[in-house]
Each structure stands twice: as C-alpha cells, then as structure tokens.
Specification:
heterodimer; A: 282 residues; alpha/beta; Elongation Factor Tu (Ef-tu), domain 3; Rossmann fold; 3 domains; seven-stranded antiparallel beta sheet; seven-stranded mixed beta sheet; B: alpha/beta; eight-stranded parallel β-barrel; four-stranded antiparallel beta sheet; 10 helices; binds flavin-adenine dinucleotide; binds flavin mononucleotide; binds FE2/S2 (inorganic) cluster
C-alpha cells in the first residue's frame, strides 16, 4: 500500500557525480521492498514543475532516531533533479511510495548476479541484503562511462561474494561495459538468476545475453512517468504476457521490475503491429 | 513531526473551521461534492482509492472508453511544460466490454458515483457505446469526449465543427435511456466555444464539460526533434486555467442555467472556487493528481472552507456569482446572450432569474 507523506531532508551528500538524499518517510520505509521506487514533488504547491520525479529506493531504515527513513541516489539531470540535490537539512519534501512491483526473490538458495549501470546500482543494495539473508550467493557487476559515475562500489563489495567493475574509459576496474563481462560471470558463478538495473540499452543487451544462456532475468526499467501511480498511461512499453499476447503495459505499476525475456526491447518506443489493441493495418 | 505544507502530505486534512454544505446538483444528479476527477487522470478510480476515499468526493469521470481495445500512441507520450504538461496517450484502453465488466463493476461495488466518458472515431461508434451502456446502469451520467478525430471527415476533430459535434450528441442521445444526463466535453481549440455549446445543447446535451486539453507541441532542443512520438499533444495543468475560466464564463453567460463541469488546471480549492464563480456547477481535477494523488480530497476540503469564509452556507449558492454584475469583461458581440435553443434548460425563466439576478443580501 503506497503512502503520501511529507518527509524531511536529513542529509544530502555527494557520492561521485551523484547526491545521496536521506529523508524521513514514515510508513514508506517500513513497507519498501527491493526494486520499488518513490516519487518526489519538486517544490511546493505553487511549483511550475508539476510532475513528480521517480527515484529507486536505495536504502531504508525503519527504526532509528528519526523513525522511518530512506535514501535515494540522485543524478543531477535536468531542473527537477538539480533542485533536489540543492535541498538542505530540515527542508520538507512531499514523497509518495513505495511504488511499483518489487524484484521477485527466489525461495531457494540460488546463485544471483546483480548488474547495475550508473545509478542503476542504487536499488541493488537492498536486493543484495535480502538475497544474502535468504542464503543466496550474490555476485555484483557494475559499470559506468567513467569512475565518477559508478555508484556504491565499496558498499556493494561488502554485500557480495565478488564484485566486477567496468568503466568505458578505463578510469576504474576493467575497460569496457558490463555486457562484456556478464557471460563469463554467469558461467563462473553458475548463476540461476540475473537482476539488472540501468539504462534501457544496457537492459536490452543483458536480456539478449541471458536469453542465450537461459538464465532467468529481471530488469528494472526506466520509462518517462507522469503520475507514477498507474492512472495516466504515459509509462507504457510492449511486454509479452503469459498468454503470448503483447500488451502496452504500465511500467509504474506492472514494473519497474520486469522479466527480461518478456520485454520487447527492440520495439520500445513503438506500438508493435501485433500488440493488443494496435490500430489495424490500413 | 514531518508535516509542514498543509495538505500536501496526503492525509492531512488541515485545520478545522466552518465548512459550506458541499451538496451539488448536477443536471439533476445529487453529488456530495462538486469535486470530480477528470477523465484520463484517474483511470477508473481504483488506484486513487489508496490515497483518499473516492466515495467522499463528488465522483469519478472515467478514462474515455472506446468500443474496442486500443493500444494508444507510441512513447514518449508526455512532456512537462511550464505549469503543465503535454500528453499524447491516444486513448489506450481495454474497450467497452472489459470496462463494463471490470472497471464499472468495481466502481459500483465500491459505492463511488461515476460519470462514464466515451470516445469514438465515427458518429456510429458513439451511438454503439451509448447502447452498450444503456442497460448496464451503475453510473450517473455520460460524458462524451468529442475531442477525437472524425475518420469520416478527414480526421477533423468532432469538437471543432458544430455539425459533427451535434451529430455525435444526437447519436448518443438516441441510443441512451433518455434519463441519464449527457455532458458534451468541448475543446477550447475553436473560434467560438459558445457556438459549439449551443449546437450540442440543441442536440440534446444536458450539460457541457469545459475544457479538454489545448493542442500543443514541444521540441527537444537536445535531440532537435519533437519531444513526443505523436508530435503534438494535449496541453493541461495550471497553464491552461485562465482559458478554462474564460470558456466557462462565456458559456455560462450565454446559457445561464446550463450545467457545466469545469476542467483545466485546478490545483487548489481557490482554483475550484474560481471555476464555480465563473459558472461551473462541478469541477474536475486532472493533471494536479499527478502532482498530488490526494488533490481531489484536499481541494474539496479547501473549497468547503473558502466558500464558508465568504459567507455562503452552500457551495451551490456561489455558482455563477462572478456574473452578478454585467461587467464588460468580454467583447460587446460576445456579451450578448445567445438565444437559448429550444428545449435547452436555459429556457426555464426561474432558472434564468436565479442565475442572473441573484444578489447576496
Ligand atoms: C522507476 C524509476 C526509477 C528511477 N530511479 C532513479 C534513481 O535512482 N536515480 C536517478 O538519478 N534517477 C532515477 N530515475 C530517473 C529520474 O526520474 C529522472 O532523471 C528525473 O525524473 C529527471 O528529472 P529532471 O527534472 O532532472 O529532468 P527533466 O528532463 O527536466 O524532466 C522532465 C520530465 O521528464 C521526466 N524524465 C526525464 N528523464 C527521465 C528519466 N530518465 N526517467 C523517467 N522520467 C524522466 C521527469 O520525471 C519530468 O517529468 C528513475 C526513473 C524511473 C522511472
Ligand atoms: C494524461 C491525460 C489523459 C487524458 N485523457 C483524457 C481522456 O481520455 N478523455 C478526456 O475527455 N479527457 C482526457 N484528458 C483531459 C482532461 O480530462 C482535462 O480535460 C484536461 O487535462 C484539463 O484539465 P487538467 O488541467 O485538470 O488536467 C486527459 C488529460 C491528461 C493529462
Ligand atoms: S506513470 Fe502514469 S500510468 Fe505509469
């Protein structure tokens, strides 16, 4: 059940090219599960930026001096996210969450590979903790264009059996992309499941690799969202259902976590002609 | 505590104080509040019920439904704009059958009041939709979204042509039970909103919803291409509020007793009050829901207080109050009340009186 609350900024700190915001979020932090997100309003009720911005829940603490708190990792992108990075302690923020479908957690002790691109590694922290608590093996593979844009390398190291880091410019770890290392890591760790979060292009490439190896894959997708709560239909992408039919599915409520083999990656941004309800050919 | 901005925290209902009676009569339907959710901004109410009690507001106007399932337009479907947004959803939806079985059934079991919005590509399709809904029941009124391209008229939007607009309303009227009020939802992208209002009222609309979105476009200066896959989109949000107020005012002036559902950028109780003063009997909240999922409830509470603060016991008493003096706000030509068409509610002289000559003691 989502909550709409006023939260207070407790801390805003830099982490490479990102900012980590700690917020009080009573109710949200208690209910949050790995892979879910929150939306934050930009400014107050007079703000000219009407649409909430979505951020993956990075970490939560349900009890403490401030009650329930949560953390999000914000990449300064446009005006809204920049405004968020400029918040100071005690500033008030309107927060809605937890939203979306969490990652599914295996009931057996299996071997899991977690792949993060850029700030996409933020939601992997909670996931790694959960998987470890359930006795799963966790191997982490994270990458970015450059060292500054890697998120959470040290902490993820603590939570995993192994960590592989890639940067495109070679400034940290191995030179290249996560997809250059994935197949080898799957084989080495005898992975049963791959979890991935990052840019859509990365998710598409990962799904292609894991499909070939028949490894179950869950991706956390990122589509532009106007409402984040399932009422507006802006965030859709073509997804194949259990019945084999492709539907334009809302990523805010039926995602952001989705089976990699079910998303029609090549058709994202289009309405495939065979999708349910697509206009008949003229 | 963490609550600071009054009302933005969802469940915070703000300070107690005098509240006006919010009971509203909308074309003969009694609603506990004039605040509704706007079509396409609340789906079928289910999701919003997690944020506030959807039976506590006036009602839900459901997402425009078509005969067949529809996948809608390609993404990106939205772009944020100053105090607003563009959308080009393309009426994605499950089709009327699934809508009746699932959405309408849920709304009825939940005890919410529902206004069903329908949309079509031909006059015939609107008629068929009305027919399918006719024997189902479970809703209070029909809203006819005529801001759709007419495939039989080179894709020209029904709402932009008085004859096509009237043809749609006639088809809906002929195929519905004659008791359920029909609201025609008009587009502001016309030369004279009053002319279109007149033609739909003549065709049998019990009221009008003002306004749908304005057609707009955003070009991304990074990619140097239009931001929306569909190129153009509908502009909504507070940016269009003055346009909505103008349309409501003009139509009210022409048809003083015609029930109007206002829509367009309502974000606060004060905005809703502005719509009521202009002449709307009810006010629907759309894009603001994306900013504040509990906005309809908050706006209801704020409005109840604002109306009471102005010395009005009932919200219905303030409807059209901005018309109490014949201020020369609009041009001479437009200020002349249009002859009320035959059979239109405005022909009731008592209604005329209450709407025009009502002066507060
Ligand atoms: C489920 C989900 C989880 C996310 N998690 C994170 C995270 O952990 N850290 C992080 O830094 N960013 C995250 N994002 C992306 C973040 O929401 C956008 O970067 C942010 O909305 C951009 O806002 P802006 O005002 O800076 O940019 P602008 O470009 O000015 O935004 C304009 C509008 O477009 C939307 N928009 C623009 N870019 C995106 C995008 N990439 N995804 C979705 N909407 C977008 C905005 O919400 C806004 O409505 C996530 C997005 C989604 C959908
Ligand atoms: C995402 C979105 C979808 C909409 N879908 C519909 C629709 O299906 N039918 C309709 O009549 N109006 C639709 N509208 C228009 C709204 O109902 C409303 O008339 C308009 O947005 C102005 O009000 P607002 O500024 O409060 O949103 C939609 C608006 C938005 C933003
Ligand atoms: S963002 Fe509105 S339905 Fe997903």
């Amino acid at each position: 059940m989502p909550h709409q609350v006023m939260g207070e900024a407790l801390d805003v700190r830099r982490a490479g090219s990102y900012f980590v915001l700690s917020l009080t979020a009573p109710g949200i932090s208690e209910d949050a599960r790995p892979g879910q997100f929150v939306t934050v309003a930009i400014g107050g009720l007079e703000s000219s930026m009407l649409l909430r911005r979505a951020f993956a829940i990075h970490r939560v603490q349900s009890r403490g001096v401030y009650g329930g708190t949560l953390e999000i990792a914000v990449s300064p992108h446009g005006l809204g996210s920049r405004w968020l990075t400029e918040r100071r302690r005690h500033d008030q923020l309107s927060i809605v969450g937890p939203l979306g479908k969490p990652f599914s957690i295996p009931s057996r002790r299996v071997s899991c590979v977690l792949v993060g691109g850029g700030y996409g590694s933020a939601p992997l922290f909670m996931l790694a903790e959960h998987l470890r608590d359930n006795g799963c093996r966790v191997d982490v593979l994270i990458g970015a264009s450059t060292e500054e844009k890697l998120f959470g390398v040290l902490d993820l190291k603590r939570l995993s059996s192994s960590i592989t880091v890639t940067t495109e410019d070679g400034s940290s770890g191995e030179t290249g992309r996560v997809t250059d290392r994935l197949a080898e890591l799957i084989d080495r760790s005898s992975a049963d499941i791959v979890y991935a979060c990052g840019p859509m292009g990365m998710l598409s490439a990962i799904s292609a690799i894991t499909a070939k190896r028949r490894v179950f894959t869950q991706c956390s997708v990122e589509e532009s969202m106007a409402c984040g709560i399932g009422v507006c239909m802006t965030c859709v992408l073509p997804v194949i259902g259990d019945d084999g039919v492709t539907r334009m599915v809302r990523s805010c409520v039926e995602g952001p976590t989705m089976r990699g083999d079910r998303v029609r990656w090549a058709d994202v941004g289009t309405i495939p002609a065979d999708a349910w309800g697509a206009a008949e050919a003229p | 505590m963490t609550r600071a901005i009054i009302g933005y925290g969802g469940t915070d209902r703000g300070p107690v104080g005098a509240r006006a009676d919010m009971t509203t009569d909308l074309a003969g339907i009694e609603l506990p509040s004039p605040i509704l959710t706007a079509s396409g901004c609340a789906a079928s109410g289910k999701e919003l019920d997690a944020y506030f009690d959807i039976t506590a507001i006036g009602g839900v106007i459901t997402k425009s439904i078509m005969l067949k399932p529809r996948a809608g337009r390609a993404t990106p479907r939205m772009a944020e704009t100053p105090s607003g947004m563009l959308n080009s959803i393309g009426l994605q939806g499950p089709g009327i059958e699934a809508f009746i079985e699932e959405d309408l059934a849920w709304l009825e079991s939940r005890g919410a009041r529902t206004i069903v919005s329908i949309a079509g590509e031909t006059v015939d399709e609107y008629g068929k939709l009305a027919q399918k809904l006719r024997n189902v029941g479970g809703f209070e009124a029909l809203e006819v979204n005529i801001s759709c391209p007419n495939v039989d008229d080179r894709g020209l939007v029904f709402a932009c042509n008085p004859d096509s607009a009237a043809a749609v309303i006639q088809a809906v009227r002929r195929n519905s039970d004659g008791r359920t009020p029909i609201f025609a939802k008009l587009s502001p992208d016309v030369t004279s909103i009053v002319e279109i209002a007149e033609s739909v009222v003549r065709a049998g609309a019990a009221g009008v919803t003002l306004i749908n979105t304005l057609l707009g476009m955003v070009i991304d200066t990074g990619t140097m291409r239009p931001a929306l896959a569909g190129l153009t989109g509908g502009l909504s949000g507070p940016a269009i509020r003055p346009v909505a107020v103008r349309c409501i005012f003009q139509v009210r002036q022409a048809f003083p007793s015609l029930p109007i559902i206002g829509a367009g950028g309502v974000r606060t109780g004060n905005d809703a009050l502005e719509f009521l003063l202009a002449g709307a009997s009810a006010v629907s909240v759309g894009t603001s829901i994306f900013n504040d999922p509990s906005a309809p409830m908050r706006i209801h509470d704020e409005l109840a207080r604002l109306v009471a603060e102005r010395g009005f016991a009932r919200v219905s008493d303030i409807v059209g109050h901005a018309h109490r003096e014949r201020d020369a706000i609009v041009t001479e030509a437009q200020a002349d009340p249009v002859e009320s068409p035959e059979g239109a509610p405005a022909s009731d002289p008592d209604d005329e009186l209450s709407a025009w000559d009502f002066v507060r003691e």
